[in-house]
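If you are new to this repository, start here. Below is one unmodified record pulled from the training split, so you can see the exact layout before writing a loader.
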Amino acid sequence: EVQLVESGGGLVQPGGSLRLSCAASGFTFDDYAMSWVRQAPGKGLEWVSAISWNGGSSHYAESMKGRFTISRDNAKNTLYLQMNSLKSEDTAVYYCARDEAPRPKYEYDAWGQGTQVTVSS
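And here is the target side for that same chain:
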């Protein structure tokens, strides 16, 4: 059974940092690109970042560039999102998602349950 389990969310002050993790199981992790997608309260899904199967390429939404860093450890079957300089508008539920291919196609066939990130003073 494919499982994606996010962790690391929480309450942080503006300007602070958090690192999200996504533990993968039930499939060969390094066969797939992975993404982070978020959903702010009352809004639709917003793609955040993607990484290829071996970490060789990564991509970011414009508003995250320079603040967020996606990475993966294939030996640990884990995806990460380091988030710095957080803003109130980053408040959302963050999901990790499995892409359908080794390089990002932005078509997802598995999702985690999400982890809440709240940026507030």
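Two things worth knowing about this chain: The two ends are 40 Å apart (CA to CA). The mean pLDDT is 97.
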